[in-house]
């Protein structure tokens, strides 16, 4: 595991954007793990959970694969199993982009 940690640290030092992408991957993995653990604990198939939520089995499958095309549906799923989604926007370290403010008329 030390080699993986060293690789991640080196990538973060070389590529400032890598840290943000890596953090997002970890957060998505946490959502996936939470949903799968819930289904297993309650002995539900993807189709059964989908029926409870009024979505397709394919959509549950995509969420479990880390594909979140619709955050509102992900939030509904998490609410159904006792969680909520917290979306946070964080400035990238060393970012040179300044916030754009529209000109007042």
Range of strand content: under 5%
CATH class: Mainly Alpha
Low-confidence parts = 97-101
Number of domains: 1
Which value, in Å, is the CA radius of gyration? 18 Å
Main beta sheet strand tally, sense and closure: none
What is the approximate shape?
elongated
- First-residue to last-residue Cα separation: 57 Å
What's this entry about, in short?
The chain contains 5 helices and no strands. The chain has 105 residues and is mainly α.
Describe this structure in words.
It is built from 5 helices and no strands. It has 105 residues and is an all-alpha fold. The model is unreliable at 97-101 (pLDDT under 50). The protein has one domain (2-80): lambda repressor-like DNA-binding domains (434 Repressor (Amino-terminal Domain)). It is elongated and about 45 Å long.
What are the salient characteristics of this protein?
105 residues; mainly alpha; 434 Repressor (Amino-terminal Domain)
What's the topology here?
Blueprint: H1 2-14, H2 16-41, H3 46-53, H4 57-64, H5 71-80
